[in-house]
Amino acid sequence: MSTSNAGLAKKLGYTNVRAFLAGEPAWSEEGYPVYASNTFVDKGNIVLIDLRKGEAPVNGRIPRSVQIHYEQLEERMDDIPRNAPVTLYSDNMTEVTDAYEDLKAEGFKTVSLVNGNYQGWVASGGKVETGPIFSNEIKWVRILGKGEVSVEEFRKAVKGDLPDTFVIDARTPEEIKELGIFTNTVNIPLDEIPKRMNEIPKDKRVFIHCSTGARADLAYRELIENDYDVKFLLLNISDPECDCPIIMP
Known about the structure:
Elements: H1 3-11, H2 23-29, E1 35-36, H3 38-43, E2 47-50, H4 56-59, E3 66-67, H5 73-76, E4 86-89, H6 93-105, E5 111-114, H7 117-123, H8 151-158, E6 165-169, H9 173-179, E7 181-182, E8 185-187, E9 205-209, H10 214-225, E10 230-232, E11 246-247
Parallel strand pairs: 1-5, 2-3, 2-4, 4-5, 6-8, 6-9, 9-10
Antiparallel strand pairs: 7-11
């Protein structure tokens, strides 16, 4: 998020905003993990993996978690949906950190850890379940949040199959110069949207995307306040699921 985008976030009501310009990729590249909030672990649409082995998960585990002990992770990698947010925990920090790095190296975009591992979860008052584990099958279905557009519908729009839709690319011109732009799409960077609303038709549906969805979400909030019929794409556009035609400038 740029400093100008942080300013827009403040305008939208966020009161404690700071911009780390290098972003999560640079953070992860330096070897620092990302931690999930307890609410995200408890209610988020995630794949929650318990890396502990043996009977430990039977004696106590975080609800919804799937037991894949670290030694099995490599052979179970293809069972984990690539576009799912994955959250890991164990009772061994070295083990969970190695698993985190393994998943990131294999191309998983959204990986996080339970803060303090299983012990930290219990100490924080998190819910726990006990008893036999009858299945370790991973069942995950993408659930659209408020204001989100499905990948299928977005793909139709950029291919020109939804003529009543206006698609905005909220990335910077520099990003587009490097990576290209989807067909049937207009580039309006996030920080320019408030002053370029006259270019956005109100008689059409508006879809917005950026590189991952974070800026598109902010743009969505801005346009909602101005009475647009708008949705945003929450997806890393490099994900093969996107599969949209690209034009290089």
